[in-house]
Amino acid sequence: MKKKTFRSLIVALTLILVSLSFSAGAVAQSSGKLEPLVIQQQGSFAVGGTVISTPGTFNPNKPFEPAGQTLHGDHAYVFYQKPVNARKYPLTFLHGAGQFSKTWESTPDGREGFQNIFLRRNFSVYLLDQSRRGGAGRSTVAMNLTPNTDEQMWFQQFRLGVWPDFYPGVQFPKDEESLNQYFRQMTPNTGPFDMDVISDAIAALYARTGPGILVTHSQGGGPGWASVMKSPNIKAVVTYESGSGFPFPDNEVPAPIPNGFNKQLEAYGVPMDDFKKLTRIPIVVYYGDNIPNTRHENPALDYWYAAVQMAEKWAETVNKHGGDVTVVHLPKVGIKGNTHFPFSDLNNVEVADHLSAWLAKKGLD
Amino acid sequence: MKKKTFRSLIVALTLILVSLSFSAGAVAQSSGKLEPLVIQQQGSFAVGGTVISTPGTFNPNKPFEPAGQTLHGDHAYVFYQKPVNARKYPLTFLHGAGQFSKTWESTPDGREGFQNIFLRRNFSVYLLDQSRRGGAGRSTVAMNLTPNTDEQMWFQQFRLGVWPDFYPGVQFPKDEESLNQYFRQMTPNTGPFDMDVISDAIAALYARTGPGILVTHSQGGGPGWASVMKSPNIKAVVTYESGSGFPFPDNEVPAPIPNGFNKQLEAYGVPMDDFKKLTRIPIVVYYGDNIPNTRHENPALDYWYAAVQMAEKWAETVNKHGGDVTVVHLPKVGIKGNTHFPFSDLNNVEVADHLSAWLAKKGLD
């Protein structure tokens, strides 16, 4: 047999068995030993961004003079993996404030995050570092970085508990190393956060990948909605704990919601034609546990109370105009104890199962 | 047949065929269509770093006051992939100045970089973002970031050519998008470059992974040598275009080498006991093409002339003390046209083949 034919046969048999292995191994994650991931293609690239330049002529023998030189910045950075026999729509993941693509990789205690979980469910997975964050650090706008001690604030804002106590039943590992890893998955803005710059890059990504599903977290919610208004290739949005950046029709913007974290949680207005784009796709908005249903003296809890109020108003407004937004409060569907990071919490497979069911229900898988 | 037994059988058959597929598919890369990557495990974590804190007591209801709060910073960030049937020693990759882990991922024109190439050769692969760079951006020391136009300088320093001309025969794609991607794989320091902080993190990584091989690029060379002096688990070093940070015995430090890029290329001294650690492992130092063998009016070329002089002195010194350093000038072994990034150049499979042969020769695979 010729070497090439032999290889093709082996590859074909491998792929058949890998498929069988996936079907048979659906429960493998909970049984400890994981099956190998079979990746048809993986890689990375920059997308979007702009170029600035200094007037003048570059002198090759005086390279430290900025004249005639350029800077390519404000792009997003993307690492992607495509499994064999990928489903129709890839999942693109956008992190929240202070985070980067790591959000979706290994959990703080080293379990698999949504990157691996959804690869195993045969989705292509694109992980973004938004413009001016992480690997997409080259910014066209200056930024001063100062090392501020702020982690006890984040511990509360991300709803692990009220420092130094974890919430009873919280789905976060209690060992010291997990908290160490959790704090170290933060990385600063290297330029001002700019929803417009970020959503331009995401729209450019969708122009490249074609139709897909966008999954956002927290602060990423805002650029996510803006991206939908810029790209018809976003066929659905899944957002975890979106807290700000909700767009309303210009004449229906609700009053800011006062809260103890950022004083006023504001929405913003967009032309009706843009807003209507949000009504044409299915959207699910998830919230975790330990969010009060009245105002609260703790600024973190008061903020999440306000965020949920705003999200409910927004869902109602989109749906009133013909949209399909579902707000899921995880504790109300029996999934308890989740923090601001349900996708990396101890029960993240259960959280993923809920998402898989929603995608199936909407015909998106 | 029980479901679990059936799954085990399928998995076993899959792994056998995957192994065959790898053996049979060794030439697949050059034939266009690539075989799937079969990954036993992949994930990410932070390693090393420190914790700073502000004196006082944290008040849960006043989370914006820094008192009693911490900042975890200065760690490195690692993304790893382990293929099925991995070889004994993983390869850990450290980028150079202005770069991050992306250096080793897709090339500017979208071909596979060393991450995928060496996964296909059954090495486990660890990609680092060094402390205060990329995803490891949380720094304990302040930094002001300003968007300086400097890319024509880098075009020359990275030896693509003398702007705006590419060197004849250079192994870099000439299309506009490749250069766009290349410039966008830069990302700034989010704190001062600190060889000691970075090598502490790398030593911590090797304490976690066990014995392995370190592959460094350019500025990464310096932290690489420092890491060898801190960790007995580094069993070999491969460095591409190391330009600075060579350690010599305290009483054998050579004079700085004048050059038009950074005025003086300096080496530094370490106690003999530390230096001797560099003599106990095999080391290969690679340089690409278009490096002059005399001084040059162009600062970039003058710098690389100086860097090679220093590297040759260093290799001679390590070998004189019983070491095993090989300096490979790629053009002298028939591999022509390489830039400062041989591992992502158009001929990077050939460059990888040379490395594979060296690893085999040293019994490291």
What does this structure look like?
Two copies of one chain form a homodimer. By secondary structure, chain A is α/β, with parallel strands linked by helices. The first copy, chain A, has a single domain (40-361), classed as Rossmann fold, CATH 3.40.50.1820. Chain A is built from nine helices and 17 strands. Chain A has helices at 3-24, 114-120, 151-157, 176-184, 195-209, 221-228, 272-277, 299-320, 348-361, and strands at residues 37-47, 50-53, 70-73, 76-83, 91-94, 125-129, 143-145, 161-162, 165-166, 212-217, 234-240, 247-249, 257-259, 263-265, 268-270, 282-287, 324-329. In chain A, the strands form five sheets. Chain A has an eight-stranded mixed beta sheet with strand order 1-4-6-5-10-11-16-17, with helices on both faces. Chain A has a two-stranded antiparallel ribbon with strand order 2-3. In chain A, helix 5 packs across helix 6 (221-228). The model of chain A is unreliable at 17-31 (pLDDT under 50). The interface between A and B is large, with 98 and 98 residues. Chains A, B: Keywords: Hydrolase, Signal. Chains A, B: Residues 1-24 form the signal peptide. Chains A, B: InterPro entries: AB_hydrolase_fold, Carboxylesterase_BioH. Chains A, B: One of its GO terms (molecular function) is hydrolase activity.
